[in-house]
Structure formats: structure tokens, C-alpha cells
Amino acid sequence: MDTTATANATCQISPHARAVRAVLTGFIGSAMGGLTGGFYVALFSGWISWFATLHIVLGGLELLLSVLSGHKKRRTNILSRIVGSRIYSVIYPNDDDHESDTNVLGWIGWIYSAIYSPVSQALWVIGNLHSASAELMIVQALSICTTALPLTIDPKARYGNQLGEGFSSTVFNFVTAMSTLILGGLSSVLLVSAAKELHHHHFIVIIYIIMLVVWTAFGRMFRPDPTSDKTNSPTGLGVLAGLAMGCFAGILIATPAFCVMMIAPKSPGLGLMDYVQCEGLALWRRVIAVIP
Fold it and tell me: CA spacing 20 to 30 A to 87: which of 70, 72, 117, 229?
């Protein structure tokens, strides 16, 4: 249990209330991806999200290698042969490459996935890693993947280019890469911790690992090309289409977390509203209990 002792009170959140955050993260993360990334980003994220941790880690490494390798002319001979990277051509485009448009929704999506989510999810892991159940850690890990997947599909390097060539765009791309790796790492930590608690169910763990590898292989084969119009931030009716797809996928993504929440006991501990209003409770604990 998450117990916080203060001078005036002892605040303890119930297992049921603790699981609410995982439900919200899965649904809102998917809806945000669809709203800011478009229909195809939401569709792909929904398809792969239950087995996406390895995909995200590899995507983050791909982004980081693309940023660190640096020189355009080395792309074909070195990086593309190592990782088969399509992302490198987005970060270091040729003069005749397609330049996708940018808009406010795209910036909101990048800030949510690359700035807000790593901090928010890291705080949740810090506050719950040693007290959450194995089931909750699994569904929270899957929900974290939803916030990171848009960065592996469309790293939004064109937004960094708006800040200017050279140092500014490099920093932008580096933040994107590190945020992707952080989110993938947090998801990995939760899955490994859950697997340790499920040591009597080795068969389930092995099956999941196999599915993780297979889904990652297919996901990297069929993910939308980041240079195509399919990964542009939506405009017009595309906003509604992306949001609708994101919400639909979000329902599917959040279903395991919802099931965990429904079967989790409501005691011992406080309900969600009572917990966040508990006198003396640290602000960051109030935030991670509610805001995905």
C-alpha cells in the first residue's frame, strides 16, 4: 500500500483508487495521440500498444543513433545499414525530401509525449513500484506505451527545424530520443517487476515475451512512414477522424486496466477523492494519483 505518514494524518490509497490512473493514462494517451498525430498514428498505436515496450526502446535507440551520427552523407553507408532507419531521413533530410506541415496540435502532442509524460510516469513509478500489485504494474506499463508510441511513428523533427538549424534542432531531436527511451525504460521496469512477482506463472511470462518480439517485428515492418502525409498532424476533418480513432483505440487499450480496477478491493485505504484531499499529503502524490 501507498502510505504517507504526516504530522496530522496517515494517507493510504486503496487498490481500487490506485488503478484509476492506469485507466486514464491508457485512454487519454490514445485520444491525445489521435488528436495531435492523426488517424494512422492512433490506429497503429492501438494495434501494437499491448506489446509495444520493445518497439519503443528500439525506436528510442534508433532516434538517438540518428541524432548522434550527425552527418547527412553517412546515412546510406552507415546508419541505414545498421537499423534500416527511415527516421534518419526525417531528422537529416535531403533538400528534395518532403517537408511536412506543422501546427499547434503537433506541438501539443510533442509536449505531452516528450516533456510531460516522462516526468509524470517517472513520478508514478517512484511512488508505486514497491507497493503496486503485479497486475497493476502490467496495465500501467501498457498505458505508458500509449504515450510513447507517437514519438516512434512521427518524431516531429520538422518541429525542431522551426527552432533553427544546428544546435536548437539537435537538442529538440535529442529530447525526443531520450524521452522515448525513458518511457520505454519505465515500461520495461514495471514489466520486469511484475514478472518477478509472477514467478509461479512462468508460462504466461514466456508467452508474453514471445508475443512482444513478434509484435515488435511486425510493428517495425508496418509502422507508417514518418515522411508520409499519414503522419502529418491533422487539420480540418482529420482532427475529428484522429480523435475518434484515438478514443476508440483508447477504449481497447484501457480495457485491461479497467478490469484490474474493477476487481481491485476498495479497502483497505481511501477512495480517490478522499486520498487527494488527505491533509498533509505531498502535492506530487496527489498529482500522480489522478492526472495521467
Answer: 117
Alpha-carbon span 78 to 156, nearest angstrom: 23
Of 219, 247, 220, 242, give the one whose Cα is nearest residue 232: 242
Element (H, E) at 228: none
Asked if the peptide bond before residue 224 counts as cis, ω within 30 degrees of 0, the response is no
CB proximity list for 10: less than 8 A, separation 6 or greater: 3, 4
C-alpha cell at 40: 494512422
Q: Quickly count: other Cβ atoms within 10 Å of residue 268's Cβ.
A: 11
Contacts of residue 96, defined as CB under 8 A and 6 or more positions apart, other chains included, come to: none
Task: Kindly give the residue spans of alpha helices, DSSP state H, lying in 129-232.
Answer: 134-153, 157-161, 167-197, 202-222
Instruction: Say what the pTM is.
Output: 0.82
Q: Which residues contact 15 (CB under 8 A, 6 or more apart)?
A: 1, 133, 136, 264, 265, 266, 269
In which residue are the cell numbers 475529428 written? 240
Give residue 261's pLDDT. Answer: 92
12, β-bridge pairs? 3
10-residue mean pLDDT series, the chain (292 residues): 48 88 93 91 88 92 84 40 45 44 88 94 91 91 92 86 83 94 96 87 87 88 62 79 94 93 87 86 86 82
Residue 251, number of CB atoms within 10 A of its CB: 14
First-to-last C-alpha distance (Å) of the chain: 20
- Please give the pLDDT value at position 81: 44
Q: Which helix (H) or strand (E) holds 101?
A: none
